[in-house]
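Quick one from the shared queue. A colleague (R.T.) flagged Peptidase E as missing a structural entry in our internal table.

Convert sequence to structure tokens.
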Amino acid sequence: MNNLPKIKKHSVTPRKAIAIGGGLLRVGDTLPIDQFIVKESGKKNPAVLFMPTASGDLPAYISAFTRVYRKLGCQVNVLRLASNRKMNEQKIKSLIAVADIIYIGGGNYNFLLSTWKKWGIIPLIKSAYKKGAVLTGLSAGCAALYQHVVDEEDNKPCRLKRGIGILHGVVIPHYKTSSTILPNNFLSSIRKKNTLVTAIEDNCGVFYKNKKLQGAIMSKGGRAFTIWPPYVKKEAVNLYIHKNKSPNS
């Protein structure tokens, strides 16, 4: 008879991320996605940290986000990196450390990344994600999560810009379905990487668990697609069916 003590198995906290192609949160375009984000935290009243940096900390955006997420039962904190001159490293670290959800808003991608680098935000976000915070980004915030994003500045050749690399491949937020799978001006830059492209329309979120694509959360007909080399066909991302129990059940 084996009387050796049983070794306890330690549960590993799943790493979750939701990338949203675009949409107007303030008018409810992304509400089903927002509800999904809150549910994935696994808490009845999760602490959500809103990062409106890409918008320059636009007050109307902050107000809309706060209103929507409080209605969903969240405790809302806002990290104002663009407008709060009294912000300091300790305050930043404490806000990120206590967040169950981190939501990175839309706006100017270049400003977002340069501000993050200035304040040393990237390693803090990665650490929070590894510890179990649900990481979410919309538009510019979505783009930041991937290895690369297609840059479409006016009157400039299309090129790829680096993200923080939590999610694999190239992302195209605000994707618009047309007869061409990828616009011709995208192809030369993307072919150099020879990697997966995830194209996300407005009002669609793509859900990842442990960096593996799980499915799409759709609102108002928004869809997402994966496009592999040689980029001649695309596959729709299947609707994700929520399998989790309700918080505290």
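Residues 59-71 form the longest helix (13 residues).
Residues 36 and 208 are 13 Å apart (CA to CA).
Added to the table.
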